[in-house]
Amino acid sequence: MEKIPITSQGLEKIKKELEELTKIKRPKIILAIAEARSHGDLKENAEYHAAKDEQAKIEGRIIKLNDLIARANVIDVTKLEKKDNVIFGSTVDLLDLENNKKKTYKIVGEEEADLAKNLIYFKSPIGKALIGKNKKDLITVTTPSGEKNFEIIEVKYI
Fold first, then answer.
1. CATH 3.10.50.30 residue ranges in the chain?
2. Lower CB density within 10 Å: C or N end of the chain?
3. Could you write out the DSSP letters of every residue in 104-117?
């Protein structure tokens, strides 16, 4: 079984989602199915079919989350020796050399990645470009909108 790197915060988030699905959403959908079933003929009961579809989505997500938890390899960067190199779980301050804007990203696992929250997947183009680099290094990232150049200003293990 292949282990999946994840931050301790990411694992907590997954556990919370799993708890919500199993303790709140699953019982609600079971009630919705029972209610829809009580309305009679199931062949033409859109409510019933919608509830069954939702149940399938919930059960699929529960299976996926349980698998992720079982395969999780939690990496807590706060417990690692402090260096200036970018590793999984580190937070990186970058300077976009095109517009002099500062960006901050945290390198995370696939399930945690959320660009809107500046959490980037370590196998994404920018994640790959950053891993192993050091403070003050210059990196070039090929993005769909062309090449971007950054300088690594700071590497934090928080």
1. 77-156
2. N
3. EEEEE-TTT-BGGG
Whose CA is closest to 98, among 39, 147, 142?
Answer: 147
Neighbours of 71 (CB within 10 A): 13
Residue with tokens 């509830």: 51
Side chain identity at 119, as an amino acid letter? L
Determine if the pTM surpasses 0.85: no
User: Which residue blocks in 7-124 are alpha helix, DSSP H?
Assistant: 8-20, 26-37, 46-71
Q: Which CATH number fits domain 4-75: 1.10.10.10, 1.10.287.180, 2.60.40.10, 3.40.50.720?
A: 1.10.287.180
Instruction: Return the closest-CA partner of residue 9 out of 70, 72, 66.
Output: 72
Tens of pLDDT along 43-87?
788 889 999 999 999 999 999 999 999 999 999 888 877 778 999
Q: Evaluate whether 82 touches 154 at the Cβ level (below 8 Å).
A: no
Topology classification of domain 77-156: Chitinase A; domain 3 (3.10.50)
